[in-house]
Design brief:
Layout lengths: L1 H22 L3 E4 L2 H9 L3 E7 L4 H14 L7 E7 L4 H6 L7 E6 L2 E7 L4 H9 L3
Parallel strand pairs: 1-3, 2-3
Antiparallel strand pairs: 2-4, 4-5
Length: 131
């Protein structure tokens, strides 16, 4: 009986830990001016991910960003997706001229940007600038 209880307690503890780790993943959403302004006002770490579905570089960046965003250190990161083809207003706002552009903010301040990088360590370095 005691072993069964300890096994169940251990499984419950593991489930709680895994849930907490999963909950720390970055928040990803479609760009919205109001939500972006709120995130900036709250001093959040922000990634603007400008991409196009037809762009092979953008498609190579996505799994790297997802992998990094799942790490606990990026649990407070907010990712805003911007469609290169349909959101020219947002491209002008951020002075972005091409798809595969990544821009990080720490609150209201731009902390860095990258265009066309598919190197995981370079993208990680960029994201760390927002922390």
């Amino acid at each position: 009986m005691t072993i069964r209880f300890l096994t169940h307690a251990g499984l419950a503890f593991a489930l709680i830990i895994l849930t907490a780790i999963g909950a720390s993943a970055a928040d990803r959403r479609t760009f919205d001016e109001k939500a972006f302004a709120e995130a900036q006002a709250q001093g959040k770490s922000i990634l603007i991910d400008i991409s196009a579905p037809w762009c092979p570089t953008c498609q190579a960046q996505k799994p790297i960003i997802e992998k990094l965003a799942a790490e606990p250190r990026y649990g407070d990161l907010t990712i805003f997706d911007v469609d290169f083809d349909s959101r020219k207003d947002v491209l002008r706002k951020f002075r972005a001229q091409s798809q595969s552009t990544l821009i990080v903010f720490k609150g209201a301040n731009e902390a860095g940007r990258s265009v066309g990088s598919t190197n995981e360590s370079a993208i990680d370095s960029l994201l760390r600038k927002a922390l």
